[in-house]
């Protein structure tokens, strides 16, 4: 896998505001991700010192998930006796087993020990990456339970993740990013572990889910209807197993006046489909999902520890 040979150098290729950490290099660790064919970020993870598999970085998943196949192959046990953790948990009416991993190592960044939900991840099997020549085996999903604990910083431009050591956030400030041309957008982490991003369309304020693991960015069809937007039918049928979305039709349109914070997204051609079938604990009316396509093309920086999102104008300079 040629990506591993580049990790040690690539970690240091993007400095920028991380100059603030120059005198405290031990305050964080870093890992290189790869970009998949669906614009998802995958990172190499070793469980209990075993061979690395690839895990999806998913801010839309409140907890981390290990595939049923990997759990069986590694004989991961359930929660230890006396831990107070149930061997089975319920989520949206379904029962899932819980596995315990002593070590969850991401290129030297130790994220364990931790409990992982056991689940099938068949929808990830077909994803590929040009950065991985062989062995792109998917092992699980890295969710918010782990990402928040280490104050993770996700850089979509360089495909890197930074983790705080001994703290829940990195010692970074917004001024450095703004000098680089990024627009600051505040984030809110809900009690249920979802990321709430405030935005406006047509004079109305909405809450959007920041979801790096989504298939694509989508808004609720009611927004399209309220604003009388012209749209085209893509003939794409969406299915999102973790969100409970089953066979919904995707349409597309540009949305005049669409803003996330002060970042103008009017020229971004975005999808419309029903995705609101659960309560994420948002402050405003649910507006939809900000997914990996929008985050990639706007070179997003996601600072979970400091609850901040940074966006640049679409680097393509034209509509999607």
Can you walk me through this structure?
- The two termini are 32 Å apart.
- The chain is built from six helices and 25 strands.
- It folds into two domains: 151 residues, Beta Barrel (Cathepsin D, subunit A, domain 1); 136 residues, Cathepsin D, subunit A, domain 1.
- With 320 residues, the chain is mostly beta strands.
- It has a 15-stranded mixed sheet that branches. Strands 2, 3, 4, 5, 6, 7, 8, 9, 10 and 11 form a ten-stranded mixed sheet that branches.
- The total count of helices amounts to 6
The structural class is mainly beta
CATH topology annotation of the largest domain: Cathepsin D, subunit A, domain 1
Overall number of structural domains: 2
Strand content range = 35-45%
In terms of quaternary structure, what is this? Answer: single chain
Write down the Rg. 19 Å
Shape by Cα distribution:
globular
CATH A-level architecture of the largest domain:
Beta Barrel
Main sheet makeup: 15 strands, mixed
CATH class category of the largest domain: Mainly Beta
Indicate the percent of residues in helices.
10-25%
CATH level 4 superfamily of the largest domain: Acid Proteases
């Amino acid at each position: 896998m040629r990506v591993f040979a580049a990790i040690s150098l690539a970690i240091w290729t993007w400095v920028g505001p991380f100059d603030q950490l120059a005198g405290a290099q031990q305050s964080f660790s870093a890992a290189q991700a790869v970009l998949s064919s669906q614009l998802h970020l995958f990172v190499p993870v070793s469980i209990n010192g075993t061979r690395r598999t690839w895990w999806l970085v998913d801010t839309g998943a409140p907890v981390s998930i290990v595939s049923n196949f990997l759990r069986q192959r590694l004989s991961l046990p359930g929660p230890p006796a006396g831990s107070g953790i149930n061997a089975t948990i319920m989520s949206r009416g379904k029962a899932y087993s819980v596995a315990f991993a002593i070590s969850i190592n991401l290129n030297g960044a130790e994220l364990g020990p931790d409990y992982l939900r056991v689940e099938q991840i068949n929808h990830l099997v077909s994803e590929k990456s040009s950065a991985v020549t062989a062995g792109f085996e998917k092992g699980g999903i890295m969710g918010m339970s782990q990402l928040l604990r280490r104050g993770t910083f996700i850089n979509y431009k360089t495909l890197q993740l930074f983790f705080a050591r001994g703290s829940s956030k990195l010692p970074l400030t917004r001024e450095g990013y703004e000098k680089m041309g990024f627009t600051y957008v505040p984030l809110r982490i809900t009690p249920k572990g979802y990321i709430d991003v405030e935005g406006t369309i047509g004079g109305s304020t909405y809450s959007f889910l920041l979801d790096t693991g989504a298939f694509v960015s989508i808004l609720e069809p009611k927004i399209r209807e309220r604003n009388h937007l012209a749209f085209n039918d893509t003939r794409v049928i969406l299915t999102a197993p973790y969100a409970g979305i089953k066979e919904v039709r995707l349409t597309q349109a540009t949305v005049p006046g669409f803003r996330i914070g002060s970042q103008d997204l009017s020229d971004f051609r975005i999808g419309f489909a029903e995705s609101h079938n659960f309560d994420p604990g948002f402050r405003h009316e649910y507006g939809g999902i900000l997914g990996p396509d929008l985050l990639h093309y706007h070179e997003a920086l996601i600072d979970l520890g400091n609850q901040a999102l940074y966006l640049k104008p679409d680097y393509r300079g034209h509509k999607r």
